[in-house]
Amino acid sequence: MSLGTFDVWDALVLASILIISALIGLYYRYTGGKQKTTKEYLMADQSMTTFPVSFSLMASFMSAITLMGVSTESYQFGTMFGVINISYLLSTPIAAYIFLPVFYRMRTTSVYEYLERRFGYATRLAASMAFTMQMILYMGIALYAPALALQAVTGIPKGMAILVLGLVCTFYSTLGGLKAVLITDVFQSFLMFAAIFAVIAVSAIKAGGLGAIWEVARERERLELFKFSLDPTVRHTCWNLIIGGMVTYLSLYGVNQTQVQRLLSVHNLKSSQSALWWNLPILGLLSLSTIFSGLAIFYYYRDCDPMLDGRISSRDQVMPLFALDTMGQYPGLCGLFVSGIFSASLSTISSAVTSLSAVTLEDYVKPVYRIIFKRTLIDSKSTLPTKIIACIYGLLCIALAFGAGSLGGVLQASLTIFGVVGGPLLGVFTLGVCTVRSNQRGVLIGFLLGLGFAFWIGFGGPKPKLTPLPFNTEGCELRNVTEVANARQGSDVKEPHYFWLYRLSYLWYCVLGFLVTTLIGYCGSIALARFNCADNSQIYLDKHKKHLDYDLFAPILSRRWRRQQQKEQLEPTSFHDESLTKLTQPAAPF
User: Fold this and answer.
1) For residue 19, what is the DSSP state?
2) Which residue, of 44, 252, 265, 497, has the fewest CB within 10 Å?
């Protein structure tokens, strides 16, 4: 594979992006409250506005994974993945009006503090540990993706790229805290869009317009949006993209520490909900633009697939290769493209570092400190340990990035990690927010079984190899005809029989983990309570278990149960449905 090099303009563009990101961290380190309290360092003093938070919500997860993974997905498999945007639209009101008000009422640093109030400390610890594992794995992939891009475009060793990017990100996120991360997210979001639009624009110039790109995609059967197969082993259908997309979205934007921490940094609930709604068009625009960029790249390589031609070893490299082949004639444009990839990764890693440091402080360090020293770790003495923790996580991310290449396709690997952990976590929070009969022992059993099941089907194997749509090599200068022929023949070999669960679409992993956790958690709670092996006393405000703590439940359910209780108080002798009586016991007026 031939390697390209940056010219002076490309190097200046890339260096300026890294320097600006670092300077933002320094600025917020030495301005305002100077990050002297954990409230400012981890929660931005709860003074942020809607605009930066809405961009940060998108940038936190839809970063280098989106820029390279979704583009490659479109290049290989067509536009079917675009249907997932419907799930974003359907899920946003659930996240905004079911989950967010509950967390906003508590205004806690760690979202898992809710689980302690609702169930107990054991549930909080189990969920927090699962989140920590999830984010550490994800950080490795997020750092690996841009390093892969830089190696393909400039020839700089992947290891060096990982070190430079990881150290810069660790520097500004450790110094500047959440405020610095939010502001850099806005800056980096525009660069992400610039990188995608640069790919589309260059291809459109060579094609003579966007219409030619669309026409070639139609002729080569890349346009597909209406696959309604009920077969759960089909990789992408409307059903698994919408249902699986909803569960994945809610596990990220509804109950994930990284996103909730951003939403709680806004000064009031209405503005926080607005940030979540404004994130929707930003997220959708990036998703659809990235899908179209894959079609734009396919237009350029329509007659000579670079992987079959032997130029790249993985199609995850096709986007940076396109930049290498087409952007060199425009001064600084290739540097802008790589800066967009870098910015995307920086936003994700910095978000993960701040959320992990918050969880580690609140869920691990403070409880251990309380046990050892018999007193609470005060806020003014928590900032330094939190910064040290953030720095450690940044360095750990660098170490894990070196092994991320073994996880397969960038997009599917990231969604698999979020699926196997996010589904069970969403199940735990759903049981807490939407039911009153769930208890700690039943939920823990459901969570552990759901997590184990999701990990089994997510990472067990062997799994069948992915079969992309047909590619063409008629326009290639066939330097290695035998290699290309073997690559073509390999796709026609009949695969052996695989275990049915291993053939499921990866989009079902999150759904199955959620369902197993929810069903076993709820049924197990009822069974344990029936045999007096568990209780739910922590959801009541009094020892007689008559006054529900309505703040622990979704507002729509809290209002309903409160009205039912008030009605019972007004008509104490009237007939009541037995199931409703179990939900709320008669109590004196507030």
Assistant:
1) H
2) 497
